[in-house]
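G., before I forget:
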Amino acid sequence: MKVIADFTIVPVGAGVSLSPYVAACEQILLGAGLKVQLHANGTNLEGDWDAVFAAVKRCHETVHQMGAPRIFTTLKIGTRTDRDQSMEAKIASVENKLEHGSRIEE
Amino acid sequence: MKVIADFTIVPVGAGVSLSPYVAACEQILLGAGLKVQLHANGTNLEGDWDAVFAAVKRCHETVHQMGAPRIFTTLKIGTRTDRDQSMEAKIASVENKLEHGSRIEE
Amino acid sequence: MKVIADFTIVPVGAGVSLSPYVAACEQILLGAGLKVQLHANGTNLEGDWDAVFAAVKRCHETVHQMGAPRIFTTLKIGTRTDRDQSMEAKIASVENKLEHGSRIEE
Amino acid sequence: MKVIADFTIVPVGAGVSLSPYVAACEQILLGAGLKVQLHANGTNLEGDWDAVFAAVKRCHETVHQMGAPRIFTTLKIGTRTDRDQSMEAKIASVENKLEHGSRIEE
């Protein structure tokens, strides 16, 4: 089962700068063979369900090892059986409608 | 690694009533040996990481089998290494501070 | 427009214990005339859109005043136009289906 | 108070294709003077708290007017008082650590 996910990891009790922890996770996610897109509020992932969740677990284990006593993660997970859709196709589907003017009538 | 999670599953393209799908998930979660607390915006779960995520995967598979072509799930996931804490203890920790009056000074 | 929401506030850079901040928010939410249900991973809210979001903003302002330099909040927000539904009715709708046995056929 | 947010709107009971609704929201967000970055699992927003939440409310109103009887929205909201930070700076902060090699020691 393929999944497109959005993953945000927030270490708690580890100071105000979170980027060292997020960078360590990016390396794990990239090394896991997933499609990975860092954005301003998290990281988008595309891959097989088991591969995605194994990588997320490894991020938690690693961020704890780096010294964070507590972690708060948010995941958005999308699966579909009607058709295969990539992350790029999701974005293109919206942008196409913007260009071709599905204007809001008021 | 123990996890306390909040799980909200939203079938898309399956009509406006979601409770049959949520009820099917509850049965899966209860059958998985997790601590399960249904609330107004999702279900709180407490258990081992692998058991929690195996149950969430089984919910996606089942809701697709029930006819939903698309699923949007939100998960909040908490882990901690400083101490063991149950869902009840998390709530009690907040309620205790309310009763003993950590008033907001303004 | 009525909203049923799930609100989780996570102060960052303010130590590992979050309950004093959450308790301060509970007092704000209760004082705002909203229906408030604390649970293990957040707080469920029911009320008018503007009242809910004014209270959430006040929580951010207060938690910063209490000393948290950074806040990460997660909100789940539900609105519907087909019918009026309370938080209690959402839970009852699922529990009713569990009792009457919408068994998963496999 | 400035906010950096991630906004995902999921119309329920309105069929399996969500892009027309998301495109309508993008037009609202762009028209509201916010910094807007569409990604594969939502839209990142940067702006004043009140402007961001007024636009989110207008999205709910519009998607209901377009025919969706029910909406499920997820928001991640970040505020900070220690320093001003843009969405681009958040991403650069992580990417800089990747390039300069904060390797995970195991």
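The CA atoms of residues 14 and 35 of chain A lie 28 Å apart. The interface with chain B takes residues 1, 13, 49, 53, 57, 60-61, 64, 69-82 of chain A (CB under 8 Å).

More on Monday.
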